Amino acid sequence: MYLCLAFFLWSLAYLLLNITSGNNEIINKAANISRFIYAPLLFRFFMIFTGYHKKIKNYYLYNALIWLITLFYIFYSIFDDKTETHYFTGYLNLFSHIIFNIINLCGVASLIFWGKFSKLKREKRQSHIIIFGAILTITITIISDYISDSINLPVITPALVLIWFFFIFYAIITNQFMAFIPTYINQDIIDNINELIILLDNNKKIIYANNRTKSIINEEDIEDSDISAVIYEHAKIYPEIDKLLENKFRTFSCRVNFLMNKKSKIPVDAIFSAAKDKYSDPMGILIIGNELKGLNQLKLLFKITAREAEIIQELVDGFTNPNIAKHMGISENTLKRHIANIYLKLDIRNRVELLNFLKDLNLVPGFKAERTLLILNNKEE
Question: I need a surface site. Which of 1, 112, 216, 352 has the fewest CB within 10 A?
Answer without folding.
Answer: 1
